[in-house]
Amino acid sequence: MGADGVQAFVDEVSKVLKDTLEQNQILDVIHGGANRGTWAHELIALKYAAWLSASFEVKVYQTFRDVVMGKLSLFAEANKLELEYQHKTKRVSTAARIMNSWGVGGEKRRIESERIHMQEQIQLVIPGLPKKRRSGVTGSELS
Question: Which end of the chain is more exposed for a tag (fewer CB within 10 A), N or C?
Answer without folding.
Answer: C
